[in-house]
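Reviewer 2 asked us to include a model.

Predict the structure of this chain.
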Amino acid sequence: MSEHSLTPSLTPSLTSAEITTQPACWRRAAETAAAAAGTTGLPRPGERVAVTGCGTSWFMAQAYAALREASGQGETDAFPASEFPVMRTYDRLVVITRSGTTTEVLDLIEEVRERWEVFALTADPASPVVRGADGTAVLDWADEASVVQTRFATTALAYLRAGLEASGALPAGVKGMAEAAADAETALKDPLPVEVLAAGQWTFLGAGWAYGLAQEAALKMREAAGAWTEAYPAMEYRHGPVAITAPGRVAWLLGTAPAGLETDISRTGGTLVADGARLDPMADLIRAQRLAVAVAESRNLNPDTPKNLTRSVILNG
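Predicted model (structure tokens):
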């Protein structure tokens, strides 16, 4: 990236502005979820649950599914809506969709709504998903003008995570939302290291529920900055991805690193980012969002309107 300027844009992007609102959005989501406990379509203990979405929403679904199952609340799976195994049996389908108009999501709801309860999280109270679901959480105050999702996605996850917290079911070692929001404020202030900004490749790693966040971090870099990024479960790093880490490249761990992994990464000569002992993984994702914007701007790209992307994928026919 040496041919690109690292000077930030004088006019902040919409994405940058939306990223900074996440601590407040998370707090509001936690309050909303706590107030609605027992009265919404949030999964009940013991239910067999599937969580779905597309793109960013699918990665949030992965994170929530891992959190819920680790909490002992019941078997929880996550699938992209386009690849959902409808022949399976579930008690409840949880749908994450900012626009509420994505074709694959609406088609899936239509196919399973007679068999399962459907609960949707969306940003638009007038969207078709509200009419199709049995219950909804409308997070319209977390909606975004940018094509790229940042605050809606993490706010939806904050709502679902707060629902687990309200029922006393957060897995051991997972912070409550108040502490996570405080970490998010720290993540907004932390300077991004120059070597991370100037790298040519980034690999994001996460274990358990943080793997979904690692996937999302990589997607943000691809969407906003057109960057070469990958994401893997942390323990899979030694099974191939280690081959590409080298000087001028980054390995970024979201959450706690498995024993010995940081040492293995350091041996490659690549830049290691590992703040799992200090920051909640969702807060660390905010730093990756900031990185995506900074790299996009250094390449004279507009992070608000990435090429080839639209706010919602609506298919004809």
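The radius of gyration is 19 Å. Strands lie at 49-53, 76-80, 92-96, 117-122, 135-138, 201-206, 229-233, 249-254, 271-274. We have added this to the supplementary material.
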